[in-house]
């Protein structure tokens, strides 16, 4: 996606007419790829199922949830695109849903209500993620896992521990989806810098909660002098609070679903392109990392046929960003350790 935006094109995903896709494969000649969505009947799951059905790189789409998937699958399956859609409901069908998957996307779990932090979701979502990852280790240990369920700063370390215990862990194949932070940073920056949003790129690093979300506006392109120091601080805060902005606007009816489905579809599309060996696919993601002293960190990642091909460094940071980086480390470290501890003890 980023490579598309750098060339000034419109987002390539999920529009089937993407010039990138046209250049590389027709829908018919693209390799067979199975994508599973776990939590497919939820607020994110349903529009994400729709967007994945529109993606010509997907040949099979498995929609799994504890309830409601027959209806979602029947509905989405009538769309006249390549992917063959099947719905799977309840735990006894989880294995079938996962078997043969190349990419597993996990938006299963409870969302926030006003006044809650993402960490307040830990008690419920940690167990859900643990049991789903146990099944992934059994039924599709080689799949790329796109973790959406919050708190991402903890659920990704939980997944890593589950896979380690099962002996299937491959750090190249586990991703925390932080694309929505990038989507927001791009939108908010374009509005303030008065540049065409389709041309904007902004890396967002760190984690996916509050101050752990660190947009690097000093590296934003196209560059602008339209932003004062205070303007950048305000943009940073809005990006960090983007999720809360939606939670409050929805007033008890959940958190971001439509923009998250869009972001999740962009990230899954990037994973599929990487698997299909399309060059120069770079997205920000929360992955195992050695670019800071923390074991997991979000930064730009180059995607390839095995998942992560390269974790890219942070580049040059402004003083404000350097300060933000130091400030986020204690919280991010604690969230990572909380996830690891949970997985080890449960
Ligand atoms: N990474 C990110 O940027 C974002 C993450 N999220 C997170 O995504 C998660 C889902 O959010 P929504 O879709 O709005 O929630 P939702 O409540 O609308 O949907 C969640 C779905 O998960 C299903 N589910 C629960 N337990 C399950 C299990 N064991 N196996 C399979 N499915 C199960 C539910 O039946 C439901 O259909 C939340 O944790 C939320 O915080 C939300 C927005 C952005
Ligand atoms: O804020 C939330 O709870 C959901 C989320 O992660 C986001 O929208 O970034």
TrEMBL record:
Highest taxon, organism lineage: Eukaryota
Annotated substrate binding sites: 112, 118, 150, 184
Domain Lactate/malate dehydrogenase N-terminal: 34-176
GO terms under biological process: malate metabolic process; tricarboxylic acid cycle
Pfam families: Ldh_1_C (PF02866), Ldh_1_N (PF00056)
Annotated InterPro entries: L-lactate/malate_DH, Lactate/malate_DH_C, Lactate/malate_DH_N, Lactate_DH/Glyco_Ohase_4_C, Malate_DH_AS, Malate_DH_type1, NAD(P)-bd_dom_sf
Catalytic activity: (S)-malate + NAD(+) = oxaloacetate + NADH + H(+)
EC number(s) reported in the record: 1.1.1.37
A molecular function GO annotation: L-malate dehydrogenase (NAD+) activity
Domain Lactate/malate dehydrogenase C-terminal: 178-342
Gene3D superfamilies associated with the record: Lactate dehydrogenase/glycoside hydrolase, family 4, C-terminal, NAD(P)-binding Rossmann-like Domain
GO cellular component: a single term: mitochondrion
Subunit structure: Homodimer.
Similarity section: Belongs to the LDH/MDH superfamily. MDH type 1 family.
Protein name: Malate dehydrogenase
């Amino acid at each position: 996606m980023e490579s598309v935006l750098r060339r000034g094109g419109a987002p390539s995903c999920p529009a089937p007419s993407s010039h990138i896709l046209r250049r590389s494969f027709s829908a018919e000649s693209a390799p067979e790829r199975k994508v599973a969505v776990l939590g497919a009947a939820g607020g994110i799951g349903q529009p994400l199922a729709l967007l994945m059905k529109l993606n010509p790189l997907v040949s099979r789409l498995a929609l799994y949830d504890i309830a409601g998937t027959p209806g979602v699958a029947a509905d989405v399956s009538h769309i006249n695109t390549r992917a063959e859609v099947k719905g799977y409901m309840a735990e006894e069908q989880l294995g079938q849903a996962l078997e043969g998957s190349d990419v597993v996307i996990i938006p299963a779990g409870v969302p926030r209500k006003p006044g809650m932090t993402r960490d307040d979701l830990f008690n419920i979502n940690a167990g859900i993620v643990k049991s789903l990852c146990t099944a992934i280790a059994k039924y599709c240990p080689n799949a790329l896992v796109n973790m959406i369920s919050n708190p991402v700063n903890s659920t990704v370390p939980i997944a890593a521990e589950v896979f380690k215990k099962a002996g299937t862990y491959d750090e190249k194949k586990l991703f925390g989806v932080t694309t929505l932070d990038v989507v927001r940073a791009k939108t908010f920056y374009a509005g303030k810098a008065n540049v065409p949003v389709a041309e904007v790129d902004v890396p967002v690093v760190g984690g996916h909660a509050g101050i752990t979300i660190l947009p690097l506006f000093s590296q934003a392109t196209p560059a602008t002098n339209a932003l004062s120091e205070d303007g950048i601080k305000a943009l940073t805060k809005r990006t960090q609070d983007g999720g809360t902005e939606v939670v409050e606007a929805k007033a008890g009816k959940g958190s971001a679903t439509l923009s998250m489905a869009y972001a999740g579809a962009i990230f899954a599309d990037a994973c599929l392109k990487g698997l299909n060996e399309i060059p120069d696919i770079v997205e920000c993601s929360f992955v195992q990392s050695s670019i800071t002293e923390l074991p997991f960190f979000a930064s730009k990642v180059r995607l390839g046929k095995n998942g992560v091909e390269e974790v890219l460094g942070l580049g040059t940071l402004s003083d404000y960003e350097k300060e933000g980086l130091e400030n986020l480390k204690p919280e991010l470290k604690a969230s990572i350790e909380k996830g690891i501890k949970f997985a080890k003890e449960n």
